[in-house]
Write a structure and sequence with these properties.
By secondary structure, this protein is mostly beta strands. Helices cover about 10% and strands about 40% of the residues. It contains three helices and 34 strands. The radius of gyration is 23 Å and the shape is globular. The N terminus is likely disordered.
């Protein structure tokens, strides 16, 4: 027989856990577009909004830098391709400098192209020192903190009997120019491609096959406005905040529904490989233009091969999915089922609390933030992208 107290205890044992159970965050739709650029881009890889509303834009597929007016109507080039004092070879990202200065990271020349407050390419700043002695320089640069320390990611590279290999993990490093010292903050998983060499490079018959892994479990990282490093771990979808070596604050893991890899996913992955092959050949051709005829003859031929294996499920996110708003808000693009063309983003507060999700229109993806808005690129049937300015969702 149940007493009154026993009944109350049973009820509370059911009610309390239910009250404390984590509820899924609300999903919002991206609001109506405020404005859209009239001129398309091949691919908006990165952008930086200036204080007057103008935009410095990296068109990554064509490897060009452009200035877009505040009303999104007129476009002018910034700098040009080359190795001169105000030129670039391959820009991979834009970094915030002081005021309206923008630093365009030229990975081929291992330096920043400095775009001044007039949005003019004015000079370059070498980053050879930041590479730790490697001749190629950092592979990824996230920028400087308020004290002038540079945050970057190197590449763990080795040469064996079968040719070069790139490690699946890398270090997040912090260079203090004043002390000439580099701190290792953490390691990240990067999902490196497999490389296989054949032939004889010295005789001009060398060949390199690149196997790109399909849906690898990777980490992504960023420099937050307050100087902390954020790492989003792919293995368990956990956010880690790193202020100094060994000082790590973890949040999560974030719950998510796993998505199966299908035949449609495999077909799309192979299409992306073909596009990557074309871009790689363009990049190699650009680098080769600076070499002598004899050196060009020794460049190995490069091909991208099919993925060596296929996972059963996709991870929560892919590399390059993390973006940080100027106020430190964290946005992570999630991987979805094949055929679902509406991207969805998990949005976290600056301290790592999942606050809501945002679903974007079909074939439209987040490419950057302004002071109070966000920018997204809409892809048309010809795979050209149109940049739009949107209101930024709030809680």
């Amino acid at each position: 027989m149940l007493t009154r107290n026993r009944v109350a205890a049973v009820i509370m044992s059911c009610v309390v856990p239910a009250m404390g159970a984590a509820q899924p965050p609300a999903t919002k739709e991206l609001g109506g577009r405020i404005a859209e650029a009239e001129e398309p881009f091949s691919r908006v890889g990165d952008l930086r909004e200036l204080s007057d509303g103008r935009l410095v834009i990296l068109d990554s597929k064509d490897n060009v830098l452009r200035l877009l007016s505040a009303d999104l109507r007129s476009v002018t080039p910034i700098g040009r391709e080359g190795s001169g004092p105000t030129e670039y070879r391959r820009v991979t990202q834009l970094v915030r400098g002081r005021g309206d200065t923008t630093l365009a990271y030229d990975v081929m020349n291992a330096r920043f192209l400095v775009i001044d407050q007039r949005a003019t390419a004015s000079k370059t700043v070498s980053l050879r020192e930041a590479s730790g002695g490697m001749p190629v320089g950092p592979m990824v640069v996230r920028g400087y903190d308020a004290t002038g320390r540079l945050f970057f990611q190197g590449m763990k590279f080795s040469m064996g009997s079968g040719g070069p290999s790139i490690s699946d993990t890398s270090y997040v490093l912090r260079l203090d120019p004043a002390r000439k010292a580099v701190d290792t903050l953490t390691t990240v998983r990067i999902g490196s491609p497999g490389l296989r060499m054949s032939g004889d490079v010295q005789k001009g018959t060398g060949k390199m096959a690149v196997a790109v892994p399909a849906f690898p479990v990777v980490d992504d990282w960023a420099l937050l406005p307050d100087g902390r490093v954020l790492v989003v771990r792919g293995a368990n979808y956990r956010l880690e905040f790193v202020e100094r070596p060994g000082d790590v604050v973890s949040k999560g893991p974030v719950r998510y529904d796993r998505v199966k890899v299908t035949a449609a996913d495999k077909a799309k992955h192979r299409e992306a490989q073909e596009a990557m092959q074309k871009e790689m050949m363009r990049a190699v051709a650009g680098a080769a233009s600076t070499l002598t005829r004899e050196q060009r003859a020794q460049l190995p031929g490069m091909t991208i091969t099919d993925a060596p294996s296929w996972p059963e499920y996709k991870p929560a996110f892919a590399q390059g999915s993390l973006r940080i708003a100027p106020d430190g808000e964290i946005w992570v693009r999630r991987l979805r089922e094949a055929g679902r063309e509406r991207p969805i983003y998990d949005v976290f507060s600056p301290d790592g609390v999942l606050i809501f999700r945002v679903e974007f229109p079909q074939k439209t993806q987040l490419v950057g933030f302004g002071a109070r808005v966000l920018y997204a690129a809409r892809e048309d049937a010809d795979e050209l992208q149109y940049l739009g300015r949107y209101p930024r969702p709030v809680k």
